[in-house]
Design brief:
This protein is mainly alpha-helical. The chain has one domain. It is built from six helices and no strands. It is globular and about 50 Å long. It starts with a helix and ends with a helix.
Length: 146
């Protein structure tokens, strides 16, 4: 079922992009996020780390020339580093949130890259819409026993 959700996520993401000309955080991201639909804290944490990553790289790009593939790589590396720092901070504050972590190490970078290209106001709502559509499709398929 996992591979089916990812494939379905890619298809719905492409259709959404073709209709709206807005990428929902990347074509793979919504399908992967739906796999964690019962862990909303992970989904929110992943989006928050993505937004922080975007802000940090946007600040850095005021001082360094970062574009294209290099920017994408920097976004992924920075998102991993920010996640590491956040986990260390939560641990040092004795906040036991072991279940909260990012969904995949590259997902935050992909979302941040889409935010960089089209803005937070377009990316995050689009991601949420496609996740909801996917979850509704999964629920219908589950009810039908497919």
């Amino acid at each position: 079922m996992m591979i089916n959700i990812i494939i379905l996520g890619v298809l719905v993401s492409i259709i959404y992009y073709e209709i709206t000309d807005i990428s929902p955080g990347g074509i793979v991201v919504p399908g992967l996020m739906v796999m964690y639909i019962t862990q909303v804290d992970k989904m929110i944490y992943t989006v928050v780390i993505s937004i922080i990553t975007y802000l940090v790289v946007k600040f850095i790009s005021g001082y360094l020339v970062i574009f294209g593939k290099r920017r994408f790589v920097v976004l992924i590396i920075v998102s991993i580093f920010i996640n590491f720092l956040m986990q260390a901070l939560l641990h040092s504050l004795s906040i036991n949130l072991l279940s909260i972590s990012i969904i995949g190490y590259t997902i935050t970078g992909i979302i941040a890259n889409n935010i960089y290209k089209q803005g937070i106001k377009r990316t995050i709502p689009s991601l949420a819409i496609v996740i909801i559509i996917l979850e509704l499709i999964v629920l219908v398929y589950t009810k039908l026993g497919v």
